[in-house]
Design goal:
Blueprint lengths: L1 E5 L3 H13 L3 E6 L2 H10 L1 E8 L2 E8 L2 E4 L3 H10 L2 E4 L6 H12 L7 E4 L6 H10 L12 E7 L3 E5 L9 E4 L5 E4 L13 E4 L2 H25 L5 H4 L3 H22 L1 H4 L2 H11 L8 H5 L2 H4 L7 H9 L5 H10 L8 H13 L1 H9 L6 H14 L8 E3 L4 E2 L1
Parallel strand pairs: 1-2, 1-6, 2-5, 3-10, 6-7, 7-8, 11-12
Antiparallel strand pairs: 3-4, 8-11, 9-10, 13-14
């Protein structure tokens, strides 16, 4: 059996590739970086290191190959012979990924399932619609399965030099399960270690996004304002820890109202998430978790989406609003989109930015909460100035 993994990054290698190889698949990566393509074809293996405090487990993933995403004919040929397609390229890259998949599907005579390991609610339908743009109107696209996946593991680091013959190492935490949308896939379903087939996939993905991801983002954006470099350091700050727990609880109450307690979970689930954030062995950086704030501030994404759901349940989402306001200040000189975000706020004003980015009205409801927090934070904000207290918005 052969699986094509489009994207040779943290999740593609550190999660999907590991589980696919353990399930008996030959893994062929599709990568844009020619150095990574050469590495896989030269070395043919890499290492996954799973860490949880002092505990460490290393797994060698062997027998892997790669093709370049810049050679679509070669990619299409591999897809035409594959038993499964996986994407782990990042949501922003899905239009390019879809064109590669479409070319391969046109060469197939049998159905295939495509699993999108992308951290967005609608990854499966989105990828299918993007692929349709590259196919004839009468192409039987619905014969193939397209599902998003909900990944539990956090993969935080890639260690090693791919120009050498030493094994690259991908560092992550232990969770090894992922959820797929059963009704969107086609029989026979692939047999993959850790795969959970769900009938109400949206409930699962919202649980991950509106609790875990919301807490992760809250920790990152507040940690950024207080000058922390790593998630495990920020979560040990008592104010940030309390804010993260409160933000996740707000999302949890919204989920409970929509789906019930079985999906939403309880306080123990929140404490388990906090314990994962405390895992210093991951060295999970604030910059990694906080990246792409524009996407993470979307109307249905981890902060605003969770807050809107909480509002519908009669919950005032104070900490989710604070986290969203903090996200509007995030800046990374290595990430041009954050410069664009700051420019948009400065030129168009906060109200216009909230409408455009978050779908919020700064004069009422959640939009007003976010605007009020942004205004309070901005009174002392400048880059390099560290926030001292959340409750009084005191700056150094």
């Amino acid at each position: 059996m052969k699986a094509i993994v489009i994207g040779a990054g943290h999740i593609g290698c550190g999660f999907a590739g590991q589980l696919l190889r353990a399930s008996g698949f030959q893994v062929i990566f599709v990568a844009r970086n020619p150095i990574m393509v050469d590495y896989f074809n030269r070395v043919g293996a890499y290492r996954v290191c799973l860490v949880n405090g002092p505990e460490k487990k290393e797994i060698i993933i062997d027998g892997v190959k790669a093709v370049s995403a810049t050679r679509p004919d070669e990619v299409a040929n591999e897809i035409s012979q594959a038993n499964l397609i996986v994407t782990a390229a990042g949501a922003i890259n899905l239009p390019e990924v879809a064109s590669l998949i479409a070319a391969g599907l046109q060469q197939r005579s049998t159905l295939i399932n495509i699993l999108a390991f992308e951290n967005v609610i609608n990854a499966g339908p989105l990828l299918r619609d993007l692929a349709a743009d590259h196919l004839p109107a009468d192409f039987p696209l619905t014969a193939h399965g397209f599902s998003g996946t909900l990944v539990e593991r956090a993969v935080t680091q890639q260690l090693g030099d791919p120009t050498k013959n030493e094994l690259l190492t991908f560092v992550g935490d232990p969770p090894a399960t992922f959820v797929v949308d059963g009704p969107s896939l086609r029989q026979p379903l692939p047999t993959i270690e850790g795969m959970i087939v769900a009938r109400n996939y949206r409930a699962w993905i919202e649980r991950k996004l509106y609790i875990f991801s919301a807490g992760h983002a809250t920790c990152a954006y507040l940690g950024y304002l207080k000058g922390y470099k790593y998630i495990h350091s920020a979560i040990r700050d008592p104010e940030i820890r309390a804010a993260v727990l409160a933000a996740m609880a707000e999302g949890q109450r919204g989920l409970a109202a929509r789906y019930g307690l079985e999906v939403a979970g309880d306080e123990n689930d929140l404490q388990n998430i906090i314990a994962r954030f405390e895992n210093a062995a991951l060295n999970d950086s604030i910059m990694r978790v906080a990246r792409d704030p524009r996407r993470k501030l979307g109307a249905n994404d981890r902060l605003v989406g969770a807050a809107r759901l909480a509002e519908k349940a009669g919950v005032i989402p104070k900490k989710l609003a604070l986290a969203a306001a903090a996200a509007l200040f995030f800046y990374n000189p290595a990430e041009p989109s954050t410069t664009d975000l700051q420019h948009e706020i400065a030129v168009d004003g906060l109200g216009a930015a909230l409408r455009h980015i978050c779908g919020l009205d700064s004069r009422r409801g959640l939009g007003r909460f976010v605007a009020d927090d942004w205004n309070r934070l901005s009174e002392g904000w400048h880059r390099g100035n560290l926030l001292l207290k959340l409750d009084q918005i005191m700056w150094a």
